[in-house]
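User: My collaborator sent over this chain with a note saying "see what the structure looks like." That's all I know about it. Can you take a look?
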Amino acid sequence: MWEHFEKYENGGISINRQCSFYVGDAAGRICSSLRGKKDHSAADRLFALNIGINFFTPEQYFLKQTHIENYILPSFSPSLSLDAKLCLFEPEDTAVPGEGPEVLVFVGYPGSGKSFLANKLARDYGYEIVNRDTLKTWQKCVENAKILLKRKQSVIVDNTNADAQSRKRFCDVAKSFGAVARCFVFNCTFEQAAHNCKYRVIIGTDEAHSDVGRMVLNTYRNKFQDLWLPLELPKLVHLQNPKAAHLDFQEPTLAEGFSSIVRVNFVPEFACSEHERIYRMYLCDS
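Assistant: Without extra context I'll predict from the sequence alone. Here is the result:
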């Protein structure tokens, strides 16, 4: 909205963003002795952050309030995630491709980077991909994996694979063909996955996943839960909810038949600087 106005509706007048400011009451302020209730959202503050201008609350600007009230920003900061400069794999020396035919079982939210990595490995190393987006059922994924392994081709299982049963099917298939099975768990919180899904719709590069929004992602909250700890990577942990026990995330273990379990960090590759600029914005929070 701002950029459209600045480019097309401002009479060609250049805007000095350093001297510009935005005043709004959706500032993410918490309930305090100064404020009887918390702000309904942080949308105004996030808008100012996204376009790079100064922000003031009405109290600060009109009433000259000097005290800065405590406020909360979204738990996922896209800029901080990019600036962390994480390595792609943990352990860092993870071998890709492996030695001989293998099955890589991916685990993670929609939008966590599974398909991006799968396509990259397919392009660079000749892996074949099976997923329910195209094959629709796990049974067809298993059958296709068997066909590919029979041809001595390595396979990537690009599904969410939240539970042990989903993963073990492919471990058993790998074993039956004398192939190795490895598990790749994607370090991505719900908030980051929602951000990623919104981002890929905005830049229009992922038609295959254009319908994956927050509503769809919410269905996976019964399967995955995030643990965000400062200075640590987000990890997938067991959901402590007895009513949803049949949908709980089950931490992958070597006992399922994996030769190793690898953690995968979200390390995006941008086609241009404009795409990175958009990614650094807060895209989901109201």
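A starting point for your reply to your collaborator: Residues 226-247 have pLDDT under 50 and may be disordered.
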